[in-house]
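Example for tutorial group B:
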């Protein structure tokens, strides 16, 4: 069982694609995507929640991970599996 993943993203975002690929490699089969390009009011929500304006912005469960670089760093530090499994 993997934790719920939420990702703020846009249609043309190479880092969003890379984040999704990394998560899928880790066994995540479902990512709740909030498309801030289709729902501009959600970008304001994202900026309020994260303090950032770029995508992707990723939450795993209740934990704010950050963007793709943060996700990749978490994987490099071997912390991503723990977060995804809730261990």
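The residue assignment follows.
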């Amino acid at each position: 069982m993997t934790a719920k993943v939420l990702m703020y993203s846009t249609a043309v975002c190479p880092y969003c694609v890379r984040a999704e690929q990394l998560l899928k490699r880790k066994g995540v089969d479902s990512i709740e995507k909030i498309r801030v390009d289709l729902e501009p009011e959600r970008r304001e929500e994202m900026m309020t929640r994260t303090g950032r304006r770029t995508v992707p912005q990723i939450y795993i469960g209740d934990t704010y991970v950050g963007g793709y670089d943060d996700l990749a760093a978490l994987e490099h530090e071997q912390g991503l599996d723990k977060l995804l499994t809730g261990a």
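Strands lie at 5-9, 31-35, 57-60, 63-66. Compare this with the pattern of hydrophobic and polar residues in the output above.
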